[in-house]
Design brief:
Elements: H1 2-26, E1 34-43, E2 58-63, E3 66-71, E4 76-81, E5 85-88, E6 92-96, E7 103-107, E8 112-116, E9 121-125, E10 128-132, E11 139-142, E12 148-152, E13 158-163, E14 167-172, E15 177-181, E16 187-191, E17 198-206, E18 212-219, E19 223-230, E20 233-241, E21 252-254, E22 260-265, E23 268-273, E24 279-283, E25 287-293, E26 297-304, E27 307-314, E28 318-326, E29 330-335, E30 338-343, E31 346-354
């Protein structure tokens, strides 16, 4: 009996020890999840502008026939209404109508800084000013006061356009792409990807250093193409024939750190990683109108009819969630780790944390 009792005690002791060790080594902390907390809502139906410190971070908005700048703390720094159209960036804005000559140019404080004299449709990107001339094939680049610096003339319609600090990139209806130096307008790159039965450029973007270029090219064998600059030429380093063809302008965008390229094709979003050479795709049936990001998340705004959907993608390439809303006009923006959503006559701040 003593032997049996001793064996039972030993088995019980071993089982207890193993159970204790299992709890120590097998137990894992719960995975952290993203939490989205509304912080404030701005009502643009009765806006109140505030005196804002120059050091306070702000960004721009455009909703319907209103535009301006707001801060991360929920203050409106500038608010304008207009009857027709507006072009606005982090630094400048201009409103215009049917008369597109002598368009007044303002800075983000609402101060008149110049006048865009050429007839055409103005466009601002950060502190860069352009006017697309009648006919849709040529444009001029102006300085911040609206004076012409250089022009780019062509007879082929422009179908894609992108501008960053150092370069202006243009895609044409005949499949040609030009990269121009912002300083003097000289041509840095001039090439035609070809490879499709019908040539046209449906979207184009350039890395901030001008080394990599990405585009959606052609119809009937439409391709997503990435090139790398080699002296004054572009060498194709990656291409794929897209499963479905886009017959409208496509959004293509490099990530903030230039490591990834986001591109919208018919029925989806692709994310190509230049370092790992991986290409991840997400089924998104909407037309993608905007992509914003912060350190950990990518926010994609899609639109179908009057329904907008925000897709939230972690930078590990996993879809964290999505939500939809009805609106005539909408935008998304990021400052820090917060997400800002504009909807008709409101702007909301959503604090994003991972806990």
């Amino acid at each position: 009996m003593k032997t049996k009792k001793s064996i039972s005690v030993t088995i019980f002791t071993i089982a207890t020890v193993f159970s204790f060790l299992y709890l120590i080594f097998a137990a894992k902390p719960l995975a952290k999840e993203y939490h989205y907390t509304p912080e404030w809502v701005l009502n643009l139906s009765s806006p109140v502008t505030d005196n804002i410190s120059p050091s306070e971070e702000k960004t721009f908005f455009n909703l319907g026939q209103t535009a301006g700048y707001f801060t991360e703390t929920g203050k409106i720094a500038l608010f304008v209404t207009f009857p027709s159209k507006v072009t606005i960036s982090e630094d400048l804005y201009a409103t215009y109508g049917t008369n597109t000559t002598n368009v007044e140019l303002f800075n983000k404080r609402g101060e008149l800084v110049g006048q865009i004299k050429p007839e055409g449709y103005p466009f601002v990107s950060e502190n860069r000013v352009y006017t697309f001339l009648p006919g849709g094939a040529s444009f001029v680049k102006c300085n911040e006061s609206g004076r012409i610096e250089w022009s780019c003339e062509n007879t082929i319609p422009i179908t894609a356009f992108y501008s960053n600090k150092n370069y202006t990139t243009i895609g044409y209806a005949d499949g040609n792409i030009k990269v121009l130096n912002n300083g003097d307008g000289r041509t840095e790159i001039d090439f035609t990807p070809a490879g499709s039965d019908l040539e046209a450029i449906y979207g184009v973007s350039l890395s901030s250093d001008g080394e990599y270029l990405a585009c959606i090219s052609g119809l009937e064998k439409q391709r997503f193409i990435i090139t790398k600059k080699d002296k004054n030429q572009s060498k194709i380093i990656y291409h794929e024939y897209l499963p479905t063809e886009l017959r409208r302008r496509s959004l293509i965008q490099f990530s903030n750190n230039n490591e990834c390229i986001y591109y919208n094709y018919e029925g989806g979003l692709g994310i190509y990683n230049l370092k790992s050479k991986s290409n991840v795709k997400f089924d998104i049936k909407d037309r993608i109108v905007s992509i914003k990001e912060n350190d950990s998340l990518i926010y994609v705004l899609g639109k179908t009819d009057s329904t907008y959907t925000v897709y939230i993608i972690e930078k590990t390439n996993s879809l964290q969630g999505k939500f939809s809303f009805e609106s005539e006009n909408a935008f998304i923006q990021t400052m820090g780790e917060a997400l800002y959503i504009g909807k008709d006559n409101t702007i909301s701040k959503i604090k994003v944390t991972k806990e």
